[in-house]
Amino acid sequence: MSSTMIFVNLPVKDLEASKGFWTKLGYAFNAQFTDENGASLVISDTIYAMLLTESRFKDFTHKAIADTSTTTEVLIALSADSRAAVDELVDAALGAGGSEPRPAQDHGFMYGRAFEDLDGHTWEVFWMDPAAVQG
């Protein structure tokens, strides 16, 4: 069985600002799939976010682009290797201009925080104790 990849397409108002935001969080872009209309954000070997200018995003849908100030179009969840890694990524997002839509959620065996990027897309970052998953 081959490894499935995911490409999340997200509309952005200012592509250069969005690229700067994600660069400050320590992520890189695949230059082969990046131009003035979009940027391929490399999250992992199998996860990518295509940050598309709103005009380019509209080429793929007949629906209106969600107004993220009043509507949640998707919650994107990313796992982290530790509680500290959750805090590190969310704190970096806040330092790069993102916002935190809610307080941290601590369930002991699972810890999570969220941030909204410059375009209001919600990214959930969580850690789960491996022993809790096995048990």
Structure overview:
It is a single chain. The protein has a four-stranded mixed β-sheet. The protein has a four-stranded mixed β-sheet with strand order 5-8-7-6. A hairpin with a 5-residue loop joins strand 7 and strand 8 (122-128). The longest helix is centred in the middle third of the chain and has 13 residues, at 83-95. The chain is globular, with a radius of gyration of 16 Å. The protein has two domains: 1-60, 2,3-Dihydroxybiphenyl 1,2-Dioxygenase, domain 1 (Roll); 73-135, Roll (2,3-Dihydroxybiphenyl 1,2-Dioxygenase, domain 1). By secondary structure, it is an alpha/beta fold. It has four helices and eight strands.
Describe the secondary-structure layout.
Layout: E1 6-12, H1 15-24, E2 28-35, E3 38-42, E4 47-53, H2 54-57, E5 75-79, H3 83-95, E6 105-106, E7 110-116, E8 122-128, H4 130-134
